[in-house]
Amino acid sequence: MKNKIKIIISLSFCLLMSVSCKKEYLTPVPQTSITDITSFDTPERVLNQVRSIYQALKNGNFYGGRFQVYGDIRADDFINETTNGVTGFDVWNLNPLGTSQNSVKNLWSQAYYTINLCNLFIDGMAAKGSVVVGTTLSANYLGEARMIRALSYYSLLQLYARPYADGNGSKPGLPLRLTGIKGPGFSDLARSTVAEVYTQILSDLNFAESNLPLTNGTDELNTTRAHRNTAIALKTRVYLSMQNYASVITEANKIVPQSVAPFKATSGVADSLQPNITTIFLTKYNTTESIFSLPMTSNTGDNPGTQNQLGFYFVRNGSSLGAAEYSLNTSGILANTNWSATDVRRTALVYTNATTTKKFLAKYQAPSPYLDYAPVIRYSEVLLNLAEALARTNAAVDARGLALVNAVRKRSDPATTVVAATQQDLINAVMLERRIELLGEGLRNNDIMRLLQTIPAKGSVAAKAPSETGYIWPISSDEMSLNRLMTDN
Hints:
Layout: H1 2-14, H2 43-57, H3 66-73, E1 78-80, H4 89-92, H5 102-133, H6 135-160, E2 172-175, E3 191-193, H7 194-211, H8 219-224, H9 228-241, H10 245-255, H11 277-283, E4 290-294, H12 310-314, E5 326-328, H13 344-347, E6 350-352, E7 359-361, E8 374-378, H14 379-393, H15 399-412, H16 423-437, H17 444-450, H18 477-482
Antiparallel strand pairs: 1-5, 2-3, 4-8, 6-7
């Protein structure tokens, strides 16, 4: 195992992945003869490094599918149908307690692999690449690398560390690796605190905001590669996880400047809600609502791979679409009477299997090899992040917060108007709307844990309180074996 990890680390430096992303702008040219000495010698080779970082991020073990799946199945809105340990049965059971569990090891490994690619790229740009591509492109590319590094560290915190609210970030966080590892023997690093990791995440996102382009020029590139508003949007999520509601409001105001609907970013990419939510998932993946998504193609190595795909987990429609790994829990969000039966998110994005009568999520309907874009963050989430921050910081019912909730609700359920008589009513309305709107996008478990709430029971699985073993994951056995300074949870 040690040799395997050492090989992965060593290969990270070369970034010589010949697989492609989406079309020409994310398709690395194979550079099988390039060494670390020459990999930053030409603008094309530098760009190839950037593309390879995105390729690592969208691996099936990370944001190509597994991270979003784990973020939902740990919570209470899905029921496991297959008891298949390969497809997250232990995660759904809230018991991936062994450091050698595949779920624990593979996500940790892929996230740190992605981080190492970012670090090696940043190092290479400082040594040579910035001179090769020039000031503007160098700033843009470094912004992309630091945004992806920030996203990777944030994502690891959500599973492998105590929530920020537990001790105000004082609990053990992650090994904060900020320089590239080119070979074996450089893995020893103690854990930084949760607060220290969040500080680095925000430093990276602030850098990204200042250095990313305002726009990438096309709808596709604005969805699949980072621009300034991508970094701002992610900061609203990060600050929400820290319960720093004032900063959520400050960041969100940059891309949600209005007090009343319609809400729309007025600088950079014109991010906004689509008139119909089904467009985002079933028709056009690259709208202005999809602030950041990861594209997939049928090319070998350019999709999540077997048993990683979102559609594989969540869908069962006919004989060829999905594997019915997880049905929707009829005692979960489906049972909430405040979710109208005529809401488009219920009528078009939830369906009943004709044979089993079980209900499944229908956001991801591309057939095998499941080429749905993997969502990372949407404008509707930013609106709800802002609404929640406003609701939690104002003792009365915040009018703007209520308007934001209704913008999301009435887009899919125009006959319903959300009302709130108290601050708690509005908070409850925001949390309900998040649960409906973002179903199957990997955020339900985050929302529970950032508030230090008990993970609810579902099916045969008992509730999990914040004080119980299994509320967070153990550290990967690979990390424990390679890093002599590492401590387990």
